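User: Sequence in, structure out. Go.
Assistant: Echoing your sequence, followed by the structure tokens.
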Amino acid sequence: MQIDRGGVMAQQKRCRLIGAPVQDGAGRPGCDMGPSAFRAAGIARAIAELGHAVEDLGNVAPAPARPAPHGNRAIRELPAVVGWTSALADAAYAAFDSPDVFPVCLGGDHSLAAGSLTGLCRRVTEWRKTFFVLWLDAHPDLHTLETTRSGNLHGVPMAYATGQPGFEGFFPPQPAIVDPANVCMLGIRSVDPAERRVIESAGMTVHDMRAIDEHGIAPLLRAFLGRVAAAGGHLHVSLDVDFLDPGIAPGVGTTVPGGATVREAHLVMEMLHDCGLVGSVDLVELNPFLDERGRTAVLMVDLLASLLGRRVLDTPTRSYAG
């Protein structure tokens, strides 16, 4: 079905919301309230107002945790994160049962991407399409179980999903590995030495904030979208709150100054809508306990709405009481 957005025809999507109330991968509590905050911020209404179908599948529950002692004593909550990874991989795979479905995973800390990426990549691979990832984040999350020093496992999902060594015997085996060459990271500005070594060897595309400052965000993104289009690929977008500057998005436990502005973030989303290639999304690391009157949750919902077709002229002017 086609939707007329002020003269622009857009394809109606069947959006399925998957709540992932996981906080075990983060270093502080609060992310488990993220899915509820997105719902309170009107995510379903925002999607429906754009003419898309929306179905809320509720929250996923983790698989039972089993003891998983590891030699790196810094690691925290490994059994719990493994349980979430298994459950979320199954939930994402099950929800994405047709190419016209548009899964939206509501986090929850970024460890949830270990499950969403592998579950969605499995399904896309079965359909004989190429799976691409746009990673919007201040961090590459490329630590392995051996290299993490904080022990917070929201720093490992991309390493796990791309088949880096050291997860065997702890995390579930991946039915499909994300090809690092099909990953583009945008907005990176906090990278540890161990992660830098993976970036240099794995072949993924990484644009830090300096590259964005020098070249602008649009040309960098446009080049990657051209590759996805040429391959006829499926594009998954994983949007971390800390991609944004903490001045506009305080509701996150991993604030890194110098992030994307409101306009840069909306431009990315508008370009993603225009390209017509995005087939699934993660919204992660929202911590309502650290937010200010829900402003971060509302901004993230607004960004998703831009990705789904809302244009500047569609948006009513908001007024906020003092």
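User: And one key feature?
Assistant: Confidence is low (pLDDT under 50) at residues 1-9.
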